[in-house]
Amino acid sequence: MAVREIAVPSTPQLGMPSLPEAYRSIPIPKGVSALRRFLAFAGPGYLVSVGYMDPGNWATDLAGGSKFGYRLLWVILASNLMAILLQTLCARLGLVTGRDLAQACRDYYKKPAVIALWILCEIAIIACDLAEVVGSAIALQLLFGIPLVYGVLITGLDVLMLLALMRFGFRKLEAIVVTLVATVAGCFALEMVMARPSAAGILSGLTHPSLPQGEMLFIALGILGATVMPHNLYLHSSVVQTRATEPTADGLKQAIKYNTIDTVVALSAAFFVNAAILILAAAVFHPAGHVVDDFKQAPELLRPLLGGAAATAFSVALLASGQSSTITGTLAGQIVMEGFLRIRIAPWLRRMITRGIALIPAVFIVSAQGDGGTVHLLVLSQVILSMQLSFAIFPLMMFTSDRKKMGQYTNPIWLKLLGYGVCILIAALNLKLLFDKSAETVGVVWFYAGAAVVLAFSLWVMFGYREKAATDDPARSDAPVIEET
Question: Contact at 8 Å (CB) between 163 and 351?
C-alpha cells in the first residue's frame, strides 16, 4: 500500500501562531453545501485585495491615465496576474506549513539576514501607510474641509477602531472591510457609467503592450509596486490561518482549493477598481489635457466635466479605500514584527507601535510637502514598495519550492519557472529605474555601488550559508508531517 507524506498546519502547541488572538477562531461548518463552505473560507482574499486598491494605487492610476491615456492598462492587468500568482503561493505556504512568510524567514535565515529583511519590510510598510494616511486625509479635506495635517492625525486614530473591531471577532473585521471594498467598487461603477470611456481605447490598452520609457516607466513601476505589495505577502500567509481547518489531508486540500478561489475572485475585483481609476482618468482628464498631480485636482476637475455626484463619489471612495487599507496595513505590521523579531507585547501597544512607525514620517512629509504634489509623493511611495518586492518574493518562491517544507504541495517545475521569471522581471525593472534615476541625481557610480551592495546581500542571503539548524533557535517549529495510506 502506498504511503505519502502530507504536510499539515502546525498547532498552537508546536509553536506560537500568527495573530494568536484570531488563530483558528473561525469554524468551518460540516455537512453543508460547497457554497456555504466556500463562504466560510472567503475573507482573507478580500483583506489582501484592499492593499491592491489603496490610495497609492489611485495615485499611480490617476497619473498614468491622465498622462498616457489607456496605454498603461496592460500594466495593471499584468501586475494583477502576478499578484494572483504570488498571493496564491502565500496562502499555500501559510496553510501547509502553519507559518507565515515572516516566521518562515525567521526559521530559515540567521539573525543578521532576519534583521535586514525586517528593516526592509518596515520601510515598505511605512511607504504603504504613507499612501493610506495621506489618501484618507485628502478625502477628509475634500468632504469636510479639514486641513491636511489635522486629517493625517485623525486617521492615526483608526488604530483604536481596529482594536475595537478585533474585540468582536475576526469575522466582523472581515465583514467591515468587505463593506468598504464594496463601497469603493460601487462608487467607481457609477463613475464609469458617467464617464462613458472608449471601448476601443480600453481594448487597445489591454491587448497592445508597449515597453515604457522615462516617466512612463516610473509610473509603470509605481503601478507594479502599488499592485504587488510586499506587506500583503506576509499578511495573506497569516490570515488564512484564522480558519479552523481540519488537520487532515482532505481538510488541507479543501482549504487550499477554497482559498485559491477566494484569492482569484477578490483580486479580480481589485483589478476592476484599479482599471476603473485609470480608465476614468484616461476618458475624462487625458483628452482635456489635464495632468493630475494632486489628489484634490481630481474631484475639482470631475465636477465641471461629470457633475457634483461624480466628485462626491470619488471622495467617498477615497475615504473608504484609505480606511480599509489602513486596517490591513496595521495587521501586516503586527505580523511582521512578531514573525521576524518574535516580540510578544500587549495587542494595543503592539498596534500603536506599528501604526506610529508610519504615522510620524507621514506627518513630517505632509507638513514639509504642503497641499501640493500629493500624487507625485504617493507615486514615489509606491515605487519604494516595488523596490522592496524582491526581498519578499524570492524567499517566498524558495520556501514554496522546498519539498521538505511543502511536501506534495511544493511548486512543480512549470510554476517554479513562472514564479522565478516574475521575480527576475520585477528585479530587472527596478534596477532599470534605479539606473535611470541615479544617472539623473547622484550619478552612475553611486548606482553601481548601491547595486553591488544589494546584489552582495541578496547572494549572501540566498547562497552564503546553510539553512539555520533547529538547535540555533529553540522556539523554531516546523510543520508536522503525517502519513496517509
Answer: yes
Q: Over range 402-428, report the average pLDDT.
A: 89
Neighbouring CB atoms inside 10 A of 362's CB total: 23
Give the residue among 109, 124, 178 at the shortest CA–CA distance from 354: 124
> Does residue 145 surpass a pLDDT of 80?
yes
Q: What CATH number should be reported for the domain holding residue 334?
A: 1.20.1740.10
pLDDT at 338: 85
Q: Is 326 in contact with 55 (CB distance < 8 Å)?
A: no
- Decide if 453 is inside a domain: no
Cα–Cα distance for residue pair 25/18, rounded to 1 Å: 12
Look up the pTM and report it.
Answer: 0.82
The closest of 95, 446, 354 to 242, measured between CA atoms, is 95
Work out the average pLDDT over 455-459.
Answer: 68
In sequence order, the β-bridge partners of residue 482 are 6
pLDDT band at 449 (very low <50, low <70, confident <90, very high): low
Task: Please answer whether residues 87 and 236 qualify as being in contact, where contact means their C-beta atoms are separated by less than 8 angstroms.
Answer: yes
Q: How many domains does the chain have?
A: 1
Locus of grid cell 489611485: 58
pLDDT at res. 483:
38
Is residue 427 a part of any domain in this protein? no
Residue 467: how many CB atoms within 10 A of its CB?
A: 12
* Burial (CB count <10 Å: 0-12, 13-18, 19+), residue 33: exposed
Grid coordinates given for 330:
496595521
67 within a domain of the structure (yes/no): yes
